[in-house]
Amino acid sequence: MAFPAEAPSNVNFTQFSNAYLPAWRALIRKNPIAAELLMFLIEHMGKQHNVVMLSQATMMELTGRSRSTISRAIKTLREDNWIDVVQVGKASAYAVNERIAWRTHANQRKYAYFSASIVATSTDQVEIKKSQLKHIPVIDD
Questions:
Q1: Is residue 45 within 8 Å of residue 73, measured between CB atoms?
Q2: Pairing relation of β-strands 117-118 and 51-54?
Q3: Which whole-number Å values give the CA distances from 49 to 44, 61, 95, 117, in the listed order?
Q4: E strands along the chain, which residues?
Q5: Quick one: CA dihedral 65, 67, 69, 75, positive or negative?
Q6: pLDDT at residue 57, rounded to an integer
Q7: How far apart are CA 108 and CA 116, in angstroms?
Q8: Residue ranges of the domains in the chain?
Q9: Beta bridge partners of 118
């Protein structure tokens, strides 16, 4: 008799370190928008990686905050080591500190992965006319 495969753990969960809960409360008092933005990044980070890639314009559109508000929040999060930011062209990859929040097994957090959840809104997209695309024929067997 075959047993069903075990569902992967942590699929629909984000884990937080209890050691950082006092720091979370302090962040909420210090800069509530930064705390909101951090939760936004955690909500959108990858299932196995703590990285989200998006432009500030997308962040502004999705959170309803101004560019200066987003910039100040990111500055606070970077200075206080909640996140790290890597520029990728005009977009940024936001890496949430893996000691604070994670979605994979705790013993997998030590590995570096170079992939991200990428968030783009329609305003980020360059309009492409279908007539400009090349048609590649597919041969069915």
A1: no
A2: parallel
A3: 10, 24, 8, 8
A4: 15-16, 51-54, 83-88, 91-96, 101-102, 117-118
A5: positive
A6: 87
A7: 16
A8: 17-123
A9: 53
Cβ pair 97, 82 in contact under 8 A: yes
Q: What is the pLDDT of residues 86-111, one digit of tens each?
A: 887 767 889 898 888 887 665 554 54
Amino acid present at 95? A
Predicted structure pTM score: 0.70
What is the end-to-end Cα distance of the chain in Å, rounded? 38
Angle at 14 between CA 29 and CA 19, to 5 degrees: 50
- Could you give the strand order of the β-sheet that contains 91-96, starting from the edge strand earlier in sequence? 83-88, 91-96, 51-54, 117-118
Cα torsion angle, 74, 76, 79, 81, sign: negative
CA distance 108 to 80: 24
Residue 63: DSSP 8-state: H
Tell me the three state secondary structure of residue 70: helix
Q: Considering the domain 17-123 in this protein, what is its CATH number?
A: 1.10.10.10
Inter-axis angle of helices 32-44 and 56-63, nearest 10: 100
pLDDT at 78: 95
